[in-house]
Each structure stands twice: as structure tokens, then as C-alpha cells.
Amino acid sequence: MSITLHHGDLPKNIDLGKVVAVDTEAMGLHNHRDRLCLVQLSSGDGTAHLVKFEPGEYKAPNLKKMLGNPKVTKLFHYARFDVSIIKHYLGVECTPLYCTKIASNLCRTYTDRHGLRELCRELLGVELNKQQQSSDWGAKELSEDQLLYAANDVLYLHAIKKELDKMLKREGRLKLAQQCMDFIPVRAELDLSGWPEVDIFAHS
Length: 204
Prior knowledge:
alpha/beta, Nucleotidyltransferase, domain 5, six-stranded mixed beta sheet, 7 helices, 6 strands, about 40% helix
């Protein structure tokens, strides 16, 4: 495993391939209130690139170019949050995309446990340490434990996707999964526009 921390942007010469695992860390879960602190990236080769932001410093032209590239699939776990906070702070719509949480919900119907830790344990035999899930991501200096936690959130997504795609194909739900993932940018826009907890499709 290799972890590289970048400040403010991704270097120009980094090629992460056609499928890039992406995650974010913020000061909380409210996209308007809690600022974006970190974006994590991995090509699935055991290397994680972490881009750290200071308050108000979100220019990051190289990172924005990669996230907005229509030829690069952005691979998330719980894309709804990451897509919306990236759009809010970086002004980029992350398409096309893949969400392992949605894929898991559609094919692992024998369980209600669809967190990254559960997917790593069942599908890969990897035990993740989630102790740093609630920590100060806005700190001037991030601890080694924080960096490892952040890296782990992207290092295994390619392998998880591979296993989930096998299950989706087996259950005949690949097309449905893709349709759900295509809707995520719209769901994220609803979150940012004031409908975060409202199901506008519900009968009420």
C-alpha cells in the first residue's frame, strides 16, 4: 500500500486510468454547512492519492478535470453524498459513475448490511478499521491513522465492484443498477436544492 498526500490539487502527471475510486471526507454530513476537507483517489493498484483542502481553497484544476472527464468512470461507495459535496465545493458533476452501495442493495438482498466494512469483510476477506470515521478532517495536520482510514475507503472499491458485478449479472440486475446510478446526479441535485429527506415520488 502506498499513500500520497497532495495539498490543494492533484499533480498534472498522474494518470489514474479509466475507472477511478473516489471518496471524500468533510467536517460533517451537511453539504451546505460542513466543508469538504479531503478527496481520496485510487486506480485500484494499491496506491491512494489524497488531496487536502484548506478553507475556501477549491481551485484544483487538475482534480476537477479528472472528476469531470466523461471518459473516466468514478467509482464510489455511497455516491449520493460524495457527488453532491463535490458538486457543491468543486463545481463538478461526476459522471459517469458507479456506486457499490447501490449495487450491494440490489444484489445482496439477503442482508441489510451494505456498508463498506461489511462488503470488504464478506467479498474480499478484508477487515477495515473504522475508528477514524468521526474525526477532525479539517485539522492542519492529519494523523497517520486518519490517512490510512481515508486511503482504505478507496483502495478496495475496484475489487468490490468486480464481485458485485458478478452478483448483479447472476441476478439479472445489471441494467437496473446502471439506471439507478445514472439517477444519482439528479438525487444529489435534489439534496443541494433543499429536498434532502423528501421522497418526491412518494404518495402523500
